[in-house]
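Quick one, T. Sequence first:
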Amino acid sequence: MFVRGFGMRHPEGSLLLWRMGLRAGMCLFSAQDGRLIAAMAKRKVVTKVVKKKTGTRAKVAHLTTGSGAPDIVARTLENAIGAQVRDYRKHAGLTVSELASVADISSGMLSKIENGQISPSLSTLQLLASALNIPLTMLLATYDRGRGCSYTKKGEGVSIRRRGTKVGHNYHLLGQSLGGDVAVEPYLISLNKDAVTYTEFRHEGIEFIYMLSGKLSYAHGDRSYTLEAGDSMMFDSAELHGPDKLIEMPAVYLSVIIYERR
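C-alpha cells:
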C-alpha cells in the first residue's frame, strides 16, 4: 500500500488515521516539502480548567505530542538489565545462542534475562559483560540514571559493522536505546562511490529514512522510490527493502529502526 501526503482517503472510503503500527507491506513516502513529517511532529498544548477548593479557577497546561502514546509505566531492575543485555548483544551482531555460549550460560537463562523474567546474579552479569566486552556498570546504566537521554556529538557516532552490511555502506550509530519494550536504533548511513546496490534487507519493525544528500532509488517490496535531499519514507521493514539504484554518489541518509523487544 502506498500513501503520499497526510490524511488521504483509504480505497474503501474511510479516512486513513496515522498510527505508529503500520500494517504489513505499507509504505509512506513524503516528498521534499516535508508536510507529512511536520504533521507527525507538530506539538500542541492542551489546557484544562480545574477548580481549587477555594472556589477560584486556575488554568493548568499539559504538554502533549498529539501522538496518542500511552502513559509511562514503572520499570523494574530486571527489565532494565535485560534491555541492556539485548541491545549490546544485537549491536555486537550475536544471536542468543552465540552470546550464551561465549558467556558460558544456557540460552534459556539468557532469554529469561533479556525478557526481565529472572534476577541474574552478579557473577552471571559479569560473565555477560565480559562476553560483550563492556564494563559491568553498562548493564545497570539505564536503571541507575532513570529516564535518560542519549547524546552524540557531531562525528562521534559509533561505527557499526552490521550483519548484511554491503560494500560501501557505512553505518554510524547516533544514539543508544534507553530501555523499555520498544527499541530504537538511529543510524547515519553513508554510501560512498564504490557502494553496491542491495535490496534484500529484511527485519522486524518499522524503518524511517530521511535523505540528507545525494540521490538514489530505494526499493520496498515491488515498488521503488526516488530519494534526494529532503525526501523521506517510512515502511514496514519486514518487507524486502534497500537501495536498488545509485544515482548521485556519495549519498547520506538517516535511518531510524523501531522494533518491539523480544
